[in-house]
Amino acid sequence: MGVIDKLANKLNFTKKDVAFFLFDAPKKYKVYNIPKRSFGHRVIAQPSKELKEYQRTFLELYQFPHHANSMAYSSGKSIKDNAEVHRKQRYLLKMDLENFFNSITPEVFWNAWGKFKALPDDNDKEWIERLLFWQPRSTRSNDLKLSVGAPSSPSISNFCMYLFDEVVTEHCQKESVYYTRYADDLTFSTNKKDILSSIPSVIKTKLKECFDHRLVINQRKTKFSSKAHNRHVTGITISNDEKLSLGRERKRYIKHLVHQFQLNKLDQKDIRHLQGLIAFARHIEPMFISSLTK
Hints:
13 helices
């Protein structure tokens, strides 16, 4: 049974309706920009409500594996679990994949698919590409890419990175290095001095072997650190006594907002922001919440 048949049965639509909808699905996105924390902006391509339903249904029909060391978008895992892996290691290396989702093309996806099972026929491949990938209007070509904003993109990205995660994990285990990936953030840690210095060149080679230059490292975000400096993993501070912490600046900020709340100076938007910060703090460092309450 082809993908059109499966979607039609699952969604209770006719095959003709599904095919008609998917024909121009890569253009059914609302595109907007949001500022990045450092500089520049991130392009968000949000699928239409109906296309999101199709994408979620596709994920129910086709199960895609992800590696155990892939910590993002995985049930039961969080940034705290990601930081926990590296908590007891003295030396830390952080790397970042450039333009992560948009670098994942149908070619990358089918290459990953072919490593796990037989590829679908050309007709099904075309429908699946229309369903999962976005076509930017700014480009004259018909290039498709994974969008930031589609509910299917996290699972598809983790699937496409599976073999890369596997070969990197195997290399790191031989060197007594811990490795995790949280979306586009790669983190390495060890207690062996100087061992991490060789990792960037290894990662560059593995990316070339797995993706043929389609995915590359953002060199500006490659950072080494150790107990002599502040260590941060996906926004969480690892203290020198090997504990996970919110960090001084974030604690000061939360205390400031709490004080403003007591003075009735926060609007509803700020209050919701504070509620989110407190929930995050309770998850990462519950003792801080206890002291804040007192």
